[in-house]
Design goal:
Two copies of one chain form a homodimer. Helix content of chain A is 49%, strand content 13%. The first copy, chain A, is built from 15 helices and eight strands. Chain A folds into two domains: 171 residues, Rossmann fold; 202 residues, Dehydroquinate synthase-like - alpha domain (Dehydroquinate synthase-like, alpha domain, Up-down Bundle). By secondary structure, chain A is an alpha/beta fold. At the A-B interface, strand 1, helix 8 and helix 9 of A face strand 1, helix 8 and helix 9 of B. Strand 1 of chain A pairs antiparallel with strand 1 of chain B, so a sheet runs across the interface.
Chain lengths: 390, 390
Amino acid sequence: MNNFVFYSPTEFVFGKDAEAQVGTMVRMYGGSKVMIVYGGGSIVRSGLLLRIQQSLQESSLSYCMLSGIQPNPTDAKVYEGIELCRKEKADMILAVGGGSVIDTAKAIAAGVLYDGDFWDFYIGKAVVEKALKVGVVLTIPAAGSEGSGNSVITKASTLQKLSLRTLKSLRPVFSIMNPELTYTLPPFQTACGIADMMAHVMERYFTNTKDVEIADRICEGILLAIIKEAEVVMKEPDNYGARANLMWCGTIAHNGTCGTGCEEDWASHFLEHEISAIYNVTHGAGLSVIFPAWMTWMTEHHIEKIVQYAIRVWGVSEDGTEKEIAMEGILRLKSFLSSIGLPVTFKELGIEHPDIDRLVDNLHNNKGELVGNYVKLTRKDSKEIYELAL
Amino acid sequence: MNNFVFYSPTEFVFGKDAEAQVGTMVRMYGGSKVMIVYGGGSIVRSGLLLRIQQSLQESSLSYCMLSGIQPNPTDAKVYEGIELCRKEKADMILAVGGGSVIDTAKAIAAGVLYDGDFWDFYIGKAVVEKALKVGVVLTIPAAGSEGSGNSVITKASTLQKLSLRTLKSLRPVFSIMNPELTYTLPPFQTACGIADMMAHVMERYFTNTKDVEIADRICEGILLAIIKEAEVVMKEPDNYGARANLMWCGTIAHNGTCGTGCEEDWASHFLEHEISAIYNVTHGAGLSVIFPAWMTWMTEHHIEKIVQYAIRVWGVSEDGTEKEIAMEGILRLKSFLSSIGLPVTFKELGIEHPDIDRLVDNLHNNKGELVGNYVKLTRKDSKEIYELAL
């Protein structure tokens, strides 16, 4: 087991009607004027935005608003938010939505207190030393951004989709999580969220680090819970128990609970980021295509943990060769993903003829000549994995 | 799943040589003069105390010291610590040890800033509104106090052993955890720690709350990891990987990671507290006697979750009656506890003729007529459980 720091200071307020506490939470964490950041009209139509505004007003808090955050969020909205936030003198950012909204809120929170271009943080030219506090009302369980210090933004002009990772400065101070708010998520978006949270667990699970039994068991436990509850929620979108289990799984998949003491991989995420940056597909759908391809490639190059995964997560019998066990596990993963309506090939993703050379070039130009850790992928390896996903 | 708040803001610095960071951490969290609280001579003999003092000095921090904390810590040391802390004007408490030391440090931290008797917090007469910050260097993985907001203190004059539970005010700001520091723990103390952390998981696992699949899977995963690593560590006390896995299991068993959204039980802990308060046995050893007895009683009164536990944690075959499955699981638990050198009966605990009537009276006088939640135990029920442990 490697040395590690576990730090997850976010206060998670989880359950029915939790959003009624948003005013209290903002005040508890020292906000006086918040900038509400959100996406489209669904939180308006559902009445959620109104309930949040009422809660803020009841706590005598003022607010301004930034709407229109899109999936795969771009730098343009961050610049707009920074300008608005400075003009309105907001002292806390309240993200109401899923990963795209939260990631944008974090970028704004860091950018407001920085003299240079916020993009400096994403290209490693500057480190976030101070940021406004961010609070969250989560509506889409998927990205795990409500419990992480990370943010992913795409620069529209270059289609660079880059991650900013912080231990402390960008963790939300609170995240309000009401599973009922996720009842109305369309099935495809629910499924994409499931693929995303599973991927967050698996990026940490596939490690070379030895003596990580507790990390393995936690990862496997979360995956088993996701798999069970996913089947329920696809049939019964308003099953509170299933929605609640999935929502919490999405958070602990990415707040540091998984992978303690492990060197993490993240190759599949990086392989996918290039797909969603160019083709603007949903991140979770892209992961559903890439992760099985990555695993399949691994059966020829570093099969060990894939075998354990097949046995412990998918219940594959230990009788058979390592290759047979691993391939059966991957088959069950793909069947599961298909069963909840996700694509498992580029073709099913709607990309009949992906420009694989461009994907490979972008990946390695952005992330370096070697990508990932479980096996450090070269350009040749990445190309083979993209091809396995055709 | 019930509504819940997950809040674990403690910064856990985990790994080899982690204690060298203690000065940096104290300074980061705003301490300028710390009171070091510890137990006996082992941290002096091992050189740990000296290394901590050096680290504090390198960060230009001053300190005073309170030593002599005993297992099942009593109020006397708390009063002594409060007085010393006020006299020395220490602004942070640094606990170096296991649960007894940390619990004493927390009691002092709350008492220093309170005008009345600190015991008021433990009998529910007052609520902790402010406390000095507590930092931890953990040397015994067991109690989980390094990641919890709780403290258990015994009032010597009445032998009342009472818990104080806080969500926020008594959580350590940081906990430094170097598994190497646990190499020299005697086998019995290691085993008692294992029983304690397993009990912390199981108190949350045995719940009536429905739709808690993620909580179940997390609990089961931690138990599986503990069981595996316990066998290793009893044979190889200086196996870093096994010590590291156990140490982290002890923390996440009790920092809120387990049992999210569950009504917890805690009857076994309460049944045990009366034993260790009267007979001054090690808490973990007492739990090792009581928990199997509690489970055995449950096979006649509420078997459901005991069956799931037997199957998922102990790998008991699903063939057979519920009673057979449950009893086989309990048998395997007892075999495991015996195999690591723990008692599973009062007699093995060294209490040939326990005063069961006194235990029952103390329990219900301290905790109320009904104890626990999985089944709410009456005086008659508690007596039967104590008798099953003979």
